[in-house]
Amino acid sequence: MGTALSSRNAIIRVAIVDDHRLVLDGLQARLNQRSLGLSVVIAESSWNALLTHPDFPVDVVVIDLHLDDTIPIATKVRALLTAGVATVVMSRHSDSTSVSAAIRAGALGFVPKTESSTELIAAIRAAAAHKRHVPDVHSEAVEQIAATPDPKLGRQELRALVLYAGGRSIREVAAEMRTTEETVKSYIKRGRGKYRQIGIDVGTRLLLRQHAIREGWVAPE
Known about the structure:
This protein is α/β, with parallel strands linked by helices. It is built from ten helices and five strands, in the order E-H-E-H-E-H-E-H-E-H-H-H-H-H-H. Strands 2-1-3-4-5 form a five-stranded parallel beta sheet, sandwiched between helices. It is elongated.
């Protein structure tokens, strides 16, 4: 489980995940100061590197919304929650769609990369205290999330939809997931059915891609 903060003055153990090394180095230098009450113990460029790092789990993970992989942000945030880790999401996209996708997945903070490090520090501290923090301009989008229904997709259903929405063919999705094309079709069909039950139409590839952009599965073009 993530490290419990035993007191108000406890050092918050932080991990940063971003696929741009300059971003990692800059944030690590800025945040890794005991005077801020933070300690950056992990700075990695991939999701797998975070999970296999000997210092994981930490208190708070700061992660880029659009890492160069096929794993949806919802899957990552849920995995971190399971490990007892709070999540703050960064993104170069600061639109309400990106904010909603991150918060809906369970992240406690969202910080556009156009913001200052002061905003990120505030988000990290809030997340460590199990509080939500987003820029004021996006507060309305966050308030609307509670009313958004959850389709309760299975892990494989979600992954198949994400890969397919990202432009891969059924054959390519099957190869990526190491399964059969018929199984992939079944995952996609079930996933679409679950969305239909909560009133969201992803029955065509175009509608699925539009939804994928709203959810933060794929980056806007």
